Amino acid sequence: LQVCCVRIANMFIVKRVVSAGGSFAPHCTSLSVSHFSACHCLASSRRHSPYSSVDRERYTSLVKSVMSSRVSSQTPETLQAEDEHMYGPVVRTPPPRPDMRVPKTLHPFLRCETTEETQEPESGPPVRISLKREQGGSFVPSVTRILQQTLSPEQIFYLERWKRRMIAELGEDGFKEYTQNLFRQGKLFHSALEDILMSGSTWKDKSLSEAPKYPSEVLGYMESISHILEDISAVRAIESTVQHDTLNYLGIVDCVARYRGVLCIIDWKTSDKPKPFLSNTYDNPIQVAAYAGALNSDENYKYQVENGLIVVAYKDGTPAHAHQLSSELMLEYWKTWLLRLEEFREQR
DNA sequence: GGATCCTTCTTCTTCTTC
């Protein structure tokens, strides 16, 4: 509102000064002296401007510019001053980082040995290996931590800008509450899903009989993914820890199951904004590839997973978006993950 | 029981015209 008032007030001043024939002409601040004179004269005697006979073509656009209400009276300088007032000092967008790099060592995504004889039956309850960190052992960083600490300058810039704007809108406390609520919803959604997938029933069965058991906040998300759940079968792992045997990192996979018959690492996400394209999910595909690579090297899992699936659920029940990651795509993201991992190690 | 960890999310130009 404050910015609007300032901008409207500025435009009003320009209009008044021009129509009163004054010599104040903010539009001319970046123009030459001759332009300024033209501006002044045109403003003071519009009907008999001496410039109309001298150099009419040259000043046509200038006249239009000054007289038009569509032109903002703001200059980049005043806009920046306003932004600084509202959001703090302006940080320039960092130049995009050329990322044609390849990892120094291309660690294999899949285990070398053949998996034909190690196929295990897909019956039985899903595995759930809980996280147990070794006391006093060497520190093993997590996928989330590594991704968080190797964000690109662009990502950091946009995230910080978003945060600044949210705090300006909601206040410090309001922002804290907002983010806590986002996390809470995500956690509730994951718990409900875990419950459904562990029990081996479908959401339709559950929603008919046990819907009241789930917090009302997650019902929309469950409705959102109900069509995806119909295509899920052979759930093998839920919220289970995976650790890479040589690359020394760990994480917790949301789910390993078949989606339309293809064995996938599945990552469930909640989002307020629609994410119809894979590119809308930022680092999520890298996260999925990192989990898959770890699982493939992990002795606790006797099978390999080459594909991925990112499911974005919506609170209002809008059908979720499911982004499938082919084995080729997973390999590409595996390379990106290896780069991020190298970057993380270099920081230390 | 307390402390710590993993995870849960958040980003992508901006203005005019119809």
How would you portray this structure in words?
One of its GO terms (cellular component) is mitochondrion. Keywords: DNA damage, DNA repair, Exonuclease, Hydrolase, Mitochondrion, Nuclease. Its main location: mitochondrion. Belongs to the MGME1 family. Residues 161-314 form the PD-(D/E)XK endonuclease-like domain. Helix 7 packs across helix 9 (216-229). The protein is globular. By secondary structure, it is α+β, with helices and mostly antiparallel strands. It has eleven helices and five strands. Residues 1-6, 8-54 and 65-71 have low confidence and may be disordered. The chain has a five-stranded mixed sheet, with helices on both faces. It has two domains: 2-87, no CATH class; 116-347, Alpha-Beta Complex (Lambda Exonuclease, Chain A), CATH 3.90.320. It binds one DNA strand of 18 nucleotides through residues 70, 131, 133, 142-145, 154-163, 166, 178-179, 182-190, 239, 241, 250-252, 254, 269-273, 279-280, 282.
